[in-house]
Design a protein that fits this description.
340 residues; alpha+beta; HIT family, subunit A; ten-stranded antiparallel sheet; four-stranded mixed sheet; 27% strand; globular; binds zinc ion
């Protein structure tokens, strides 16, 4: 079994009314990612810049009622754990707080309010805030997800990305079974290990991408950062931690490095006009469970000038993605921000 970065190209032609009906040729690339198995089409279509982010409408709407995650309301308006599950009721650390999700969808399902601030722009999420949040997530999994195997730290940033509240918060989920994406990743990792005498798919993917270079950003602490060969969004940035490691294996200094990478990507997102995003850190809670540790940050933008949602039937109903920003170009744009 080899890591194959597969690209199938096809060319389409039509008569273009904006070029006096001259023949126009456009290339379509279909890519299959050897790590995730994702299929993505990369189009040669050029989009306009997104323009500056503007969250005013969501901030104003959020001020119409009390915010349960703001410090003056949190104690009174958020859930608590049963005394036998967590005697102190909620977990707190460095301005972040964890409590049960009132709308649960997984065996262990918690909300982690990241900071006292009601609203932060993407570039305002400092390494300190993110490291504190990730480290508290690890504490929450250790104390509240005993017996669970597969977990994720998730983040919907603002309403167009699925958030219910403006106030920055992660959602922690852990269960005995992986989600579909995680199960697929685990299956691929296990098949690779069988075929390659205990080969580690994440290590080999990192090695191949570091050598290829076009999508490579760099290594920062435990994680290698790159843009995925077959992206799941127009903007998709990935961090991989190889060798059977998970969030619970990271030391404080390593969590800080991971947070530093996230902070850099968020500052880049803001500079590009990416005002909405989803974030997931996939992690196993037990070593040997077979799930590579993967972090993804994906855009949820509206495409100008009409404000077209970047998600459409293709992704929702065909399980394939379309992007017009090649990951190689994304990596190139991100690199100056990466260097700092
Ligand atoms: Zn708030």
């Amino acid at each position: 079994m080899e890591l194959k970065f597969e690209i199938t190209r096809s060319r389409t032609r039509f008569l273009d009314p904006f070029k006096k009906f001259e023949t126009t040729e456009l290339d379509i690339e279909s890519r299959k990612d050897p790590l995730s198995g994702d299929s993505t089409r990369v189009l040669s279509f050029r989009a306009r810049p997104l323009g500056p982010i503007d969250h005013q409408v969501y901030i104003e709407r959020s001020q119409e009622r009390p915010c349960p995650f703001c410090p003056e309301n949190l104690e009174r308006m958020t859930t608590r754990y049963l005394p036998q599950d967590l005697p102190e009721g909620r977990l707190s650390q460095g301005g972040a707080t964890v409590f049960p999700n009132a709308f649960p969808y997984e065996a262990m399902n918690a909300v982690l309010v990241l900071c006292p601030e009601h609203y932060l722009r993407p570039s305002q999420f400092s390494t300190e805030i993110l490291a504190n949040g990730l480290s508290l997530a690890a504490v929450a999994f250790k104390r509240l997800a005993k017996g669970q195997t597969y977990a994720s730290v998730n983040w919907n940033y603002l309403m167009p990305a699925g958030a219910g509240l403006v106030h920055p918060h992660f959602q922690l989920a852990a269960g005995k079974s992986p989600t579909r994406f995680q199960a697929n990743l685990r299956t691929r990792a296990r098949a690779y290990a069988r075929a390659k005498e205990n080969g580690d798919i994440a290590s080999d993917y990192i090695l191949a991408e570091r050598q290829a270079g076009a999508r490579w950003l760099g290594r920062l602490g435990p994680a290698s950062w790159l843009t995925p060969f077959a992206p799941r969004a127009i903007y998709d940035v990935m961090a991989l931690i190889p060798c059977d490691k998970g969030l619970l294996d990271l030391k404080p200094g390593q969590i800080e490095k991971l947070a530093q990478g996230i902070s850099r990507v968020l500052a880049f997102f803001e500079s590009e006009g990416v005002g909405y995003f989803n974030f997931t850190l996939h992690t196993q809670l037990k070593s040997g469970a077979g799930l590579p540790c993967m972090l993804r940050l994906v855009s949820r933008v509206d495409i100008p000038p009409m404000g077209v949602d970047e998600i459409n039937y293709f992704e929702k109903l065909h399980d394939e993605m379309i992007t017009f920003l090649p990951p190689e170009e994304l990596a190139q744009r991100l690199r100056p921000h990466w260097a700092g």
